[in-house]
Design goal:
By secondary structure, the chain is an alpha+beta fold. It has one helix at 4-27, and strands at residues 33-41, 47-55. This is Transmembrane protein.
Length: 61
Amino acid sequence: MPTKRTLIFIALLFVISFSATFFMIRSNDHKECEIVIKKELDKNGIEVTKEGHVCKEKYSF
């Protein structure tokens, strides 16, 4: 049977992990992001369109 101190540690670890995950999801609003579309030719000469996601945010989670 785990001790009371171990249970408190596990609960605290869960709360901190949940809070950090919630913060990352809510703070990543993508307001400073844009989608870049590039058109390239592949080896067969067919035009291929590629989309890229570019963020100017300091931290992009």
